[in-house]
Amino acid sequence: MPRSTEAPSLIPERDRLAGDLTVAVVGHRRDGHARSLIKRLDTLGARASFVELSASTFSTLHPSGLALPGFDSRLPDGVIVRAIAAGSFEAVTRRLGVLHALREEGVLVWNDARAIERCVDKSMTTFLIARNGLPTPQTWTVEGRAEALRIARRETLQGPLVLKPLFGSQGRGLKLIRSARDLPEESAVASVYYLQRFVGGVGPEHSDFRVLVSHGKIVAAMRRHAAHWITNVKQGGRPEAVELDETLAQLAIRSTAAVEADFAGVDILLASDGKPYVLEVNSMPAWRGLQSVSGSDIAETIAQDFLNVLHERVLGRRTA
After folding, report:
1. How many CA atoms, within 13 angstroms, populate the side-chain half-sphere of residue 42?
2. Staple 108 to which of 8, 78, 211, 302, CB 3.0 to 4.6 Å?
3. Where in the chain is the domain with CATH 3.40.50.20?
4. Would you put residue 244 in left (φ > 0), alpha (ψ -120 to 50) or beta?
5. How far apart are CA 230 and CA 176, in angstroms?
6. Which helix (H) or strand (E) holds 219?
7. Tens of pLDDT along 150-209?
8. Cα distance between residue 149 and residue 66, in whole Å
9. Is 111 left (phi over 0), alpha (psi -120 to 50) or beta?
């Protein structure tokens, strides 16, 4: 069936009022982060609502080919992705497809599917960080235990490695590999081994940095302390407010740009020799721990940055 030629324009006229702008906050549940974003967007003059991608529909009968719950015949002007629910490979692929389609239809999406895919796949994140000349630990990603064993036998002679799930967050599923014997069977890692040089210290306390970047600037930063080498706040890490020096600030900003994210949480670790390494870039970061030690309103900053870009695109002026 051919696409309708009478679909309403997705880019409104410049004489539309700022309060007419509609924004969908995407998540898999209306958590505190999503509620905060919606509240800040509403306060700043947009009309924001919560959307679960699982409830969206690709339809050749719809004017735009895509329908989001609560938006009737037209799509929102903008979308902020707070989270994408876990699911089958098919379900997650379709949800990412919705984000791809929204971008194709001219909707402003933060972060868009391309950035999310680059960050969800840790091997691609590492590739892009290294390709842009930014410091990151030596890393190998292979399929099959035989090749992983070969790497582990060779590389653990120089020190331990960290095995990370290719898809995962908040410190879950990490394992220290001191010898090849520590490698799990293929069934435990879906046959994919992401191995990274362990560059942390030996204790008694471990720490790293989480930096939140939005629209090319630092929003907030914290140093996470823990008795264990996994420092994520969800795993018991203790957040501490910190003022970043210019080196770490620029490293976080450049890492976010490397994956082409609009906003991101960047994890940076200082090795025993003081050299900084980028460990991960998270395109759907949580910030509860960071907010607890930050003097700025993180949700408000993200909402303001997003609306500035949306207003310039749609209305030709900034909100502030």
Report:
1. 10
2. 78
3. 18-111+301-314
4. beta
5. 10
6. strand 217-226
7. 999 999 999 999 999 888 655 567 899 999 999 999 999 999 999 999 997 655 678 899
8. 46
9. beta
206: closest CA among 267, 292, 130?
Answer: 267
Check if CATH label 1.25.10.10 holds for domain 18-111+301-314: no
Domain with CATH 3.30.1490 in the chain: 139-197
Q: Which regions of the chain carry the CATH code 3.30.470.20?
A: 118-135+202-283
Q: How many residues does the chain have?
A: 320
DSSP string, 288-301: HHHHHT-SS-HHHH
pLDDT over 90 for what percent of the chain?
A: 73
Average pLDDT value over all residues in the chain = 89
The helix/strand/coil state of 194 is strand
Paired strand residues for 268: 209, 278
CATH class of 139-197: alpha beta
| CA distance linking residue 238 with residue 205, whole number of Å | 11
Element holding 312 (H helix, E strand): helix 298-314
Token pair belonging to 149: 């064993």
What do you get for the CA distance between the two ends of the chain, in Å? 44
